Amino acid sequence: MFPDLHWQDLFPQEHSNTQPAPASPFPEGEGIIEVDMLAPSARVVYSFEIRRGEPLHFGAWSNRRIAIALTTFAEFERWTDSAAPFQELRSLQRHVGRLPKKIRFRAGRTGCYHVVVMNLTNRRAKVIVEAQSLT
Predict the structure, then answer these.
(1) What are phi and psi of 38, to 5 degrees?
(2) Which of 5, 43, 64, 103 could in theory staple to 118 by disulfide, Cβ–Cβ 3.0 to 4.6 A?
(3) Of 41, 64, 33, which is closest to residue 129 (Cα–Cα)?
């Protein structure tokens, strides 16, 4: 009757070798979960509008050496306008390495904050990002 329909499609079965997904290290809530490939020395920037006292949880995992830095909007603009190397970006928190790298931050003042994720190698890097700004 329906040649492309199989009973497994109607009644899905768990595969015996299936492992449960690892629990997220972040509290439940809305946020960002993203997988990206970063070219050598490339960067990606995430912007967050945060009110005073609100927390930001940000994590990045990679198969290569990466850096993540949390900075204010003004410092980020200063850095991009000067075309200075990544090491000169003044940041509130910074982590360098492979996996995982996490930022836990509570805003001291209301404003825009940026998290810069940068591939520090000369090879493509797979990066997984999870971020939440909670009220």
Answers:
(1) -100, 130
(2) 43
(3) 33
